[in-house]
Amino acid sequence: MLRLSLALALALLLAACPQDKDDPDSTGDTAASTTGTTEGDTSTGATVTTGGADVDCAFLPGKTFRQDVGHSCPLEPAVTCHDELRFTEATYDHYHSDYVSYGSYTCEAGVIREANGGETIQLGTITAATGHLVWEGEGFTAQQP
Questions:
Q1: Residues 50, 52, 56, 57: is their CA dihedral positive or negative?
Q2: Phi and psi for 95 in degrees, rounded to 5?
Q3: Which CATH architecture has domain 48-142?
Q4: H-run or E-run covering 134
């Protein structure tokens, strides 16, 4: 009985497996058996536009941006401060002159958004070709590593 059960289980398992696409005797549809996605690695939180890479959004991770126009430092008013933004695959750190704010972001077609209290807000836009970021209305430029 055990041999018959093992043989039956093996036959059922083989029948459930997709056919080899190189086997001339195969009649199975291999297109339905493919796995994966063309959208990119969703475990990182990165967004990639179908049909081609979103080069603007792909430009963000690992980059540091410096504010174009400085402002008076709160702790030293005679000194000009420039905010900085640093990006990972899914988070950002905003270095103000006297504190740091941070959060998670998504990016699609160069538009950067953050989910905040159930509401999604647009924080900025990125243009990879120029290395220019607009963040909450302020201009930032990508810095060399």
A1: positive
A2: -90, 100
A3: Beta Barrel (2.40)
A4: strand 132-135
pLDDT at 55 over 90: yes
Q: Report the alpha-carbon distance of residue 131 to residue 145 in Å, rounded.
A: 13
DSSP code, position 42: G
Where do the DSSP E strands lie in the chain?
64-67, 71-72, 80-81, 84-87, 91-95, 100-104, 106-108, 111-116, 119-127, 132-135, 138-142
Round to whole Å and give the CA distance between 53 and 61. 14
In this structure, the chain runs to a length of: 145
Contact assessment for residue 85 and residue 135, using Cβ atoms and an 8 Å cutoff: yes
Q: Give tens-digit pLDDT for 39-48.
A: 333 333 333 3
0.90 exceeded by pTM: no
pLDDT over 60 at 103, yes or no: yes
